[in-house]
Amino acid sequence: MTGWIKLSATAMICIGLIIQTIAVATSEHEDEEYYLALGGRAYDNWMNLIDKKERKQRGLSIKEFHHNHPLYPAAGKKRGLTTWRCKECHGWDYLGNRGAYGSGSHYTGIKGIRDMQGANLDRITAIIRGDNHGYDQRMIDDQTLSALALFISRGQVDMNAYIDRATGKAKGTPEKGKPLYNSLCAICHGTKGRKINFKTINKPEFVGTVANRNPWEVLHKIRNGHPGEQMISVLALNVQQQVDILRYSQELPQQ
Prior knowledge:
By secondary structure, the chain is an all-alpha fold.
């Protein structure tokens, strides 16, 4: 009996340690979906996450970024602040020079971030804060940095699995995407996707335009939202449902 009691006590201690470990693992990334989406928006355009008042408090000015990012190649065609965006070198599909940015005006020759999927978060933050990338706390504060690292490690999707590389067509079902679009997206973009013009009257750009021209960007924004705007993240949906929304968006008017 004494031996059984000792064994039971040992078992209870082990169970307690397991429960404690699970609790720590859960609390370490509490509200994970929120921070994954925040990190995705920072990857898109971290500057747009900081309003004018906050920029002033941080002593941060857009004018500081008239020069290109130190890692941006001299042969690149972009200039200034846009070269400081993560997506500008690593791509909307996270594949960098092996993806959609492997040619054209966004080409840099820089690799993507797919190899960092599942990477240690401290390793990622160290790279972003390091001398080469050089993003200090005025630019990306610690909370946003943690979210960005979380996104890079856990928030990516294999774009090639969901978007045909040759045609740009999303591998989804428009009929399934329509009710999702109409209930989640149409309130801002309209049922035809023409309520917001992203460009100018002379050169309009609507949901259907971008969904066909750059489906990787649209899927990224469907998943994570748009920085600095009241666009929701739909990470609560599964990836295939998100792709169905994209596929339906490709059926919307482009003009």
